[in-house]
Amino acid sequence: MKKNERYYQEYMTHRHVSRRGLFRAFMTASRKAAPPPADLPAWPLPPGAITTAQFFSRCDKCQRCIQACSMGILLARHEGFPQLAIEYASCDGCGKCIQACSTGALQPQQPVDTGLRPFFNAACVNPVKGCRLCVDSCPTQACSMGDKGLPVVDFNACTGCGACLVQCDNGAVALNEAAGQQAIPAHGAGAS
Fold first, then answer.
1. Distance between CA atoms of 166 and 65, rounded to whole angstroms?
2. Nearest to residue 45, comparing CAs of 34, 26, 58?
3. N or C: which end of the chain has fewer CB within 10 A?
4. Cα separation of 179 and 176, whole Å?
5. What is the DSSP string of 69-97?
């Protein structure tokens, strides 16, 4: 994740910025982030998105979902389509974005699921005794400490909210598409 001026503007405009999160953002800004693997989607869709092709054919770029997001994690891409951005805040699963969608591109879910799942890398503080921030911050208790002292995730319990990513001080968490979901096209179908 490239932490540039836009990142910090979004971070600062979010109404739930914690002192800890702000400090962590400034402290980790100079770290070099590895580029994401080429097979990952270019950008994640909002929670409740129907299949990718149907989403892009139904979404009229009205941006009501973006305006309804109380956490401020839905952004407009340059094409006008909404993008889920969990870099600076997690999804609380309120479903307001889904309720605001009048085209049916976003469908009600119970519980609300972003379709993303966390994956942990070797950047964890200590493989013998982890910091547990991801475990303690998980609202569904999907994260736990594994036998080797590294976090593990119960993908069935996880809703992809991103709390573990937001809380991780070491960049050890990446959110990727859940297995079985379709890849998101780089420019979106019907992009103008």
1. 22
2. 58
3. C
4. 9
5. -TT--EEE-TTS-EEE--SSS------HH
- Whether residue 104 is predicted with pLDDT greater than 80 in this model: the reply is yes
Q: Which two tokens stand for residue 190?
A: 């019907």
- What letter represents residue 125's amino acid? V
- pLDDT in the model for residue 52: 83
Cβ-Cβ contacts under 8 Å for 173 (sequence gap 6 or more): 118, 119, 120, 121, 134, 164, 165
| Residues facing residue 177 across a β-bridge | 116
Could you tell me the domains of the chain?
A: 5-177 (3.30.70.20)
Specify the DSSP element, H or E, that contains 176: strand 173-177
The sign of the CA dihedral 129, 1, 7, 74 is negative
For the whole model, what pTM was predicted?
0.68
Residues in CB range of 49: below 8 A, 6 or more apart? 55, 105, 106, 107, 115
124 burial via Cβ count (<10 Å: 0-12, 13-18, 19+): buried
How far is Cα 20 from Cα 152, in angstroms, rounded to an integer?
24
